[in-house]
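Long-time lurker. I teach an intro course on protein structure, and each term I like to show students one example going from raw sequence to a predicted 3D structure in token notation. This year I'd like something fresh instead of my usual example. Would anyone be willing to generate the tokens for the chain below so I can use it in lecture? Attribution to the forum is fine with me.
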Amino acid sequence: MFEQDHGDSSRELVGGLDALARPGTFQLGRNLRLSALADVRLQWSGPRPGRRPDACLSFNCSMEPMKTILRNILAIIAGLVAGGVVNMALIVLGPHVIPPPPGVDPTDVQSLSASIHLLGPQHFVFPFLAHALGTLAGAIVCFRIAATYRASLAYAIGAAFLAGGISAAWMIPAPIWFIVLDLVGAYIPMAWIGILLIRRTKGRTNPIATAETGQQLAG
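-- Reply from a regular --
Happy to contribute to a lecture. Here you go:
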């Protein structure tokens, strides 16, 4: 009802001023008509009760959901790639820091499966770090890039690496204590730590964000 009355009154105003702008009338009438038309257009372009502003009907606004989806997909891909790079780098570095027993190739699944009984607890340090820090890096990258649902997508990165850890535990018969430690502590908790680190880092530069983060953690 409000919109109909608003539209009728605007048309009456424009029609009345249009009569003033006909040939033979004063130039002032034409100027008034143009000014009124501009005012009416500004009023119509503003937000109305129960409706989105007309500006949101533009092409750029209609592309915003697609941009958000593409950015979230990019965040997931970037998180998986970053986490995989960190994971592989530590796996390759590990044998150079803690040499494996003679005859054991840590890059060969069959060699590890056949020689797993020769490995001591120190040989599992870098595999755990690779899984944990790879997940941490992937969650941080995903959280920083994502446009929406940042925490959920970061946890999705942790779940993806957890699936990889379960697959590795199935293929390589590691000790039970390492499998439990790896699956429980190297994936979802590291994704949570990555989210917490980003939020705390942002909070240091934004006191309002710090207060909001504290309320969320307390809740």
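Some talking points for your students: Residues 63-218 form one domain. The chain has two domains: 2-59, 63-218.
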